[in-house]
UniProtKB/TrEMBL annotation:
Name of the protein: UDP-galactopyranose mutase
Alphabetical UniProt keywords: FAD, Flavoprotein, Isomerase
Swiss-Prot/TrEMBL cofactor(s): FAD
Residue span, UDP-galactopyranose mutase C-terminal domain: 148-348
A GO molecular-function annotation: UDP-galactopyranose mutase activity
SUPFAM superfamilies (UniProt xref): FAD-linked reductases, C-terminal domain, Nucleotide-binding domain
Species per Swiss-Prot/TrEMBL record: Dyadobacter chenhuakuii
Taxonomic lineage: Bacteria, Pseudomonadati, Bacteroidota, Cytophagia, Cytophagales
Family as reported in the entry's similarity comment: Belongs to the UDP-galactopyranose/dTDP-fucopyranose mutase family.
EC number: 5.4.99.9
Gene3D superfamilies, per database record: NAD(P)-binding Rossmann-like Domain
């Protein structure tokens, strides 16, 4: 008999849900994380009473009632609605593209006028078979929206010219002919009241957690402690990078505490011009309707990922997908190890998808 039924590597959302569900079923769990905190990428740092989203702004949204009820059973969510604003050389536009944006761009007031304007621009561009992201975007929404709101932002995000990016990156562009600035179409969205740490704390309540512990530094000892390992870290690292390193796109965050109450009047402002080096400024207090006397803002700079920097967005191109398939095949053969979460599955997951994925794995494993 080992000391624990499960050793859970990674106290992010995926690992925390698995630990919670296993504990609920009477299993003994040990959760470790190499960071000095739990929560993984949804962790918030408290600065002057403001929850600062340390690893990028996080907005929970889902269409799935069960997933919404599940997260709300640990902490109630507020009514935050994501309505980003774009700043293009000092001009402000509402996002996603909707009647407010079209009015700001062209002073059109009716859906018919807006549709006509877009149709005209798409026709004038005359792109029949889009060969790259630029042509694809113009063929969907015309030149004005593309040049003011898409081009530079996308180029900053990917670190490449839009003409060098494949067309498939933009399959469709949501265009709304109503005055609706709600970025998401999902039925439920919000931020945990009191911050995301409340969600993690709720999930991990009563479970033994050790932070600042790297699985690979004590692999044998830790593995020997439990019947089963649940691994939510990078899959290539687990297998010693034997097929090569999986690539990511990364971000750099610059936080500033400002001695003013309200900096930009919105949680998210995108900078869509080519001169500004960052893509967004996040003002964290607005996620929770904060009234603190100070404010914290974060400038977001996309950057290439190199060893040691945070892996944020998997590059799911052919090369990396082929490498991942090799690791996945090994993972399927690995006895007494369950792999899950964004790093072990090398895929971009929104939080609601992580909840869905972890609960599904729990169901398959226990029921
Ligand atoms: P993680 O949170 O990465 O957790 C994995 C944990 O494993 C980490 O804490 C790590 O330290 C630990 N670990 C790894 N290796 C080891 C090891 N060797 N030993 C010990 N511990 C280890 N989703 C939304 O729904 N809405 C959003 O607005 C949103 N915004 C996002 C913005 C950005 C910039 C990014 C990158 C993602 C965003 N997401 C968003 C997605 C969200 O962050 C993820 O879905 C979620 O955090 C993934 O949880 P996870 O447990 O799979 O991974």
């Amino acid at each position: 008999m080992k000391q624990y039924d499960y050793l859970i590597v990674g106290a992010g959302l995926w690992g925390s849900i698995f630990a919670h569900e296993a504990t609920k079923r009477g299993k003994k769990c040990l959760v470790i994380d190499r960071r000095d905190h739990t929560g993984g990428n949804i962790f918030c740092e408290n600065v002057e009473g403001i929850n600062v989203h340390k690893y990028g702004a996080h907005i929970f949204h889902t269409n799935d009632r069960d997933i919404w009820d599940y997260v709300n059973s640990f902490v109630e969510f507020n009514r935050y609605t994501n309505s980003p604003v774009a700043n293009f050389n000092g001009e402000l536009y509402n996002l996603p593209f909707n009647m407010n944006t079209f009015y700001q761009l062209w002073k059109v007031k009716t859906p018919e006028e807006a549709k006509e304007k877009i149709k005209q621009q798409v026709e004038e561009a005359g792109i029949k078979d889009p060969q790259n992201l630029e042509e694809q975007a113009i063929s969907l929404v015309g030149t004005d929206i593309y040049h003011k709101l898409i081009k530079a932002y996308t180029e900053k995000q990917w670190g490449r010219k839009a003409t060098e990016l494949p067309a498939f990156i933009i399959k469709r562009l949501p265009v709304r002919f109503t005055f609706d600035n709600n970025y998401f179409n999902d039925r439920y969205q919000g931020i945990p009241i009191g911050g995301y740490n409340k969600l993690t704390e709720g999930l991990l309540e009563g479970i033994e957690v050790r932070t600042g512990v790297d699985f690979f530094k004590e692999r044998e000892t830790l593995t020997a402690l439990a019947e089963t390992v649940v691994y939510t870290g990078p899959i290539d690292e687990y297998f010693g990078f034997q097929f090569g390193q999986l690539e990511y796109r990364s971000l750099r965050f610059e936080n500033q505490l400002l001695d003013q109450e309200n900096y930009q009047g919105n949680a998210v402002v995108n900078y869509t011009d080519g001169e500004t080096p960052f893509t967004r400024i996040i003002e964290h207090k607005h996620f929770e309707f904060g009234t603190q006397p100070k404010t914290v803002i974060t400038h977001e700079f996309p950057q290439e990922w190199e060893k040691g920097s945070e892996p944020y967005y998997p590059v799911n191109d052919d090369k990396n997908s082929a490498i991942f398939s090799q690791y996945k095949a090994l993972a399927e053969q690995e006895p007494n190890v369950i792999f899950g979460g964004r790093l072990a599955e090398y895929r971009y997951y929104d939080m609601h998808q992580v909840v869905g994925s972890a609960l599904k794995k729990v169901k398959v494993h226990f029921d």
